[in-house]
């Protein structure tokens, strides 16, 4: 299996490129518009054909590269069924499988950060991996104060869905702000200070008191991402 993790320093976003082998079809998760050429270079150098491009949710801190990648490669774009983006090729529902030449991702509806957030699980052909978007972060969780976010739904998604996965499942979020690159379900159950040993009420209280500023690019990013990164269309 080919697996590459690419970091955008401006938004602290992780993008993931995967394929079952060289010369094979591949997929990308949570691509950033400014790094589209970087992804295409990696894909070319690894002799891959990009066929699936996925966003875990409508991001507020960067503009997606879904549209650019579809235009340049002919790939299909994917988001969860509750997304309001009008240029997505395929909207996936709970437990649907996205297959790219043997790399199979199972969609898991995990609202809370936004009301349309999905996570994606790989269970076959190697280590179990879950791509959690912004719902579950490494030693943290995504804010719940805009885009239909809800701390109760966030708790439910994490504790009653993601935390039921095997403890050895590797966790790959869409963001990290401290330089961590991966975690595991077992680690987050034990060491995530917002969740470990916390009741739902305690978690909700923590999330409601975060008092975070809005993402700097939110006013630009959200409308652009509803158009798959087409800023001109969004404006």
UniProtKB/TrEMBL annotation:
Keywords: Hydrolase, Metal-binding. One of its GO terms (biological process) is glutathione metabolic process. It comes from the Bacteria. SUPFAM superfamilies: Metallo-hydrolase/oxidoreductase (SSF56281). CDD domains: POD-like_MBL-fold (cd07724). GO terms for molecular function: hydrolase activity; metal ion binding; sulfur dioxygenase activity. Residues 12-175 form the Metallo-beta-lactamase domain. This is Glyoxylase-like metal-dependent hydrolase (Beta-lactamase superfamily II).
């Amino acid at each position: 299996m080919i697996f590459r993790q690419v970091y955008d320093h401006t938004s602290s976003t992780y993008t993931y490129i995967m394929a079952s082998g060289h010369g094979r079809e591949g997929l990308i998760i949570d691509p950033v518009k400014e790094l589209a050429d970087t992804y295409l270079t990696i894909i070319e150098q690894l002799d891959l054909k990009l066929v699936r491009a996925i966003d875990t949710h409508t991001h507020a801190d960067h503009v997606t590269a879904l549209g650019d990648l579809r235009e340049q490669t002919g790939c299909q774009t994917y988001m969860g069924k509750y997304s309001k983006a009008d240029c997505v090729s395929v909207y996936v529902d709970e437990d649907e499988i996205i297959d790219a030449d043997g790399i199979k991702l199972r969609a898991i509806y995990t609202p809370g950060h936004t009301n349309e957030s999905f996570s994606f699980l790989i269970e076959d052909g190697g280590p179990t991996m879950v791509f959690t978007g912004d719902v579950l972060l490494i030693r943290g969780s995504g804010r719940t104060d805009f885009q239909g976010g809800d701390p109760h739904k966030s708790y439910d998604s994490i504790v009653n869905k993601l935390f039921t996965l095997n403890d050895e499942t590797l966790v790959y979020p869409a963001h990290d702000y401290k330089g961590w690159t991966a975690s595991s379900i077992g680690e987050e159950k034990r060491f995530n200070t917002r969740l470990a040993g916390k009741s739902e009420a305690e978690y909700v209280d923590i999330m409601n008191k975060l008092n975070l500023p809005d993402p700097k690019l939110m006013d630009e990013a959200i409308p652009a991402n509803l158009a798959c990164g087409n800023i001109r269309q969004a404006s």
